[in-house]
Structures are given as structure tokens and as C-alpha cells.
Amino acid sequence: MDKDIDLGIATISGRYPDEGYGVNLISKELIYVIEGSGTLNFENKKIEFSEGDSILIEPNEKYYYDTEYCKISMSCTPAWQMEQHKLVK
Q1: Interstrand relation of 21-24 and 54-57 (parallel, antiparallel or unpaired)
Q2: Does the global pTM surpass 0.85?
Q3: CA distances from 89 to 23, 51, 52, 84 (A)
Q4: Pair 88, 43: CB distance under 8 Å
Q5: pLDDT in tens, 35-85
Q6: Could you tell me which of 12, 48, 69, 86 has the fewest CB atoms within 10 Å of its CB?
Q7: Which neighbouring-strand residues pair with 70?
Q8: CA 3, 60, 12: angle at the middle one, nearest 5?
């Protein structure tokens, strides 16, 4: 319930989002890969990731995951709220 930082666990398989990009309008997101591998695609770059990697996503940075399977830990600062996450083309 802290407004400054949070932590969540997510399992992703396939492409997320299904089309377009996801974007966090407010928070930095620090991703840590617990299991699996894949690619995190941004508008101007791609980052290959695997177990043990960490990736920082800046606010307003558009991205999508492409993975057969991965389990990640996500920490957001300030804490994530549903209304700040958008799906865009």
C-alpha cells in the first residue's frame, strides 16, 4: 500500500500486448527476469533478455514483450496504478 514503490510478479507467454505497445505514463518500471527469456521491444531498440537480467523502462517509453515464456518481477516507482498504464498503437 506504499504510494512511492511497489513490487509485482507476472508470467508472460507470447506477445504482450497482443498488438501495439504498452506504456506507463508515470512510473519507472524495473524488471527482473526470474525465469525464461525473450525480447523486450521498444520503438527504437530491442533488448534480448534471459533469467537473471534486469531492464529499466522509463515513463512514457512504449514497449511490448515477445516471449515463449517468462516470469518477471516488476517494481514501479511511484507505485503502479491501473489508470497510468495504457495500450497504444
Answers
A1: unpaired
A2: yes
A3: 10, 29, 30, 16
A4: no
A5: 999 999 999 999 999 999 999 999 999 999 999 999 999 999 999 999 999
A6: 48
A7: 12, 36
A8: 80
CA 81 to chain centre: 14
Strands (DSSP E) contained in 17-84 are 21-24, 28-42, 46-50, 54-57, 63-77
What the block records as the C-alpha cell of 16 is: 504482450
Is the distance from CB of 27 to CB of 58 less than 8 angstroms?
Answer: no
Report the alpha-carbon distance of residue 40 to residue 57 in Å, rounded. Answer: 10
Provide φ and ψ at 27, rounded to 5°: -95, 150
Nine-digit cell string for 26: 508515470
> Would you tell me how many other CB atoms lie within 10 Å of the CB of residue 53?
15
